[in-house]
Amino acid sequence: MNADDFRDYMLSFLFLRYLSDNYEFAANRELGADYPKLEEMDKRAPLALWYEKNTEDIDEFEKQMRRKVHYVIKSEYLWSSIAELARTQDADLLVTLQNGFKYIENESFGDNFQGLFSEINLNSEKLGKNHEDRNAKLCNIISKIAEGIADFSTDSDVLGDAYEYLIGEFAAGSGKKAGEFYTPQQLSNILSEIVSLDSQDPATGKKKKLNKVLDFACGSGSLLLNVRHKLGANGIGKIYGQESNITTYNLARMNMLLHGVKDSEFEIYHGDSLNNDWSLLNEMNPAKKLKVDAVVANPPFSYRWEPNESLSEDFRFKSHGLAPKSAADFAFLLHGFGFLSDEGTMAIILPHGVLFRGGAESRIRTKLLKDGHIDTVIGLPANLFFSTGIPVCILVLKKCKKHDDVLFINASEYFEKGKTSESIT
What percent helix, strand, coil does the chain show, rounded to 5? Predict the structure, then answer.
């Protein structure tokens, strides 16, 4: 099994382990003395026994669980039940897992999480040529993973850190593909610190709360979670993210839940930001239009796009013009900037070329400067990313600035060499 396939299995099963442990912990508190205590040799999930003996109380119990933890998992789909099927080489493991994934996607949460496990193809020939072979292979994979994560903490912060660590390790090992889903932690920290500061007077420190935060190229969601971490669990009203890659879109949704973000506290959309195909962001009614307090983004560098004539009249680009086909960097910037509130801050990572390239980019850059929207430019070293060796910069933008000047910071010499990339000092 190659690294990408193993990543999908490992991260998905770690996610299932978190959902299960969190649910069983909450159920234990809810049921109190009625929570079953099993014999040492009994490897079933305790909730399985409770469900068997309390069929008339299940509906009320699940209503309570939806209020407390915002989701429900049937006992047969809990990680402990799945791991036990794998340990005993049960012939029903594959079917049970398929049904469990469908249940979590469609029924566990108040909102539909359809396709959450779509990257795990349980009928793939990589697992075996027939059902029996696939079931046996899956038993071995899950048994090994269960052994590996058996001693993992059930604390959401620790599990969240483990999840982020694994994403980073997979990014380091998968080279250029890594840019699709991972922003190096140090850069993520810088962007998060910037947008959490008071936009008009950063010296006064962090804001107490951001009502809405957007990352329109959110990858695995690490940037958004980092902003949340800076402000605390109650520091953001709602998180909004968009991602075009289906694998990383699912990673982002899992990552949010695994870090304890309730399904009502975030909205991640699978779609193309440049085409603006998310109806929420296409709202033209000024009273309903989304305006966010912070935008963070690490979009694809110098992405080739195909703007059509109608996009020149799009509200995002109309005042500044269209970015060239050869590099959509300013198109991404203007997309995010269009949803920034008057008191908000935007921090975006872009290739160094946006600072000096001519043509349409020069006109967009000049317009942003003359309108007083560029607040800070931070030049960064080369080789910070697994996906590219080019030098990059951070642009900080605001709709309403207190001062007319632009702060330039040259951090290009402040780095330490690493095995596959550099790190900022």
Answer: 45, 15, 40
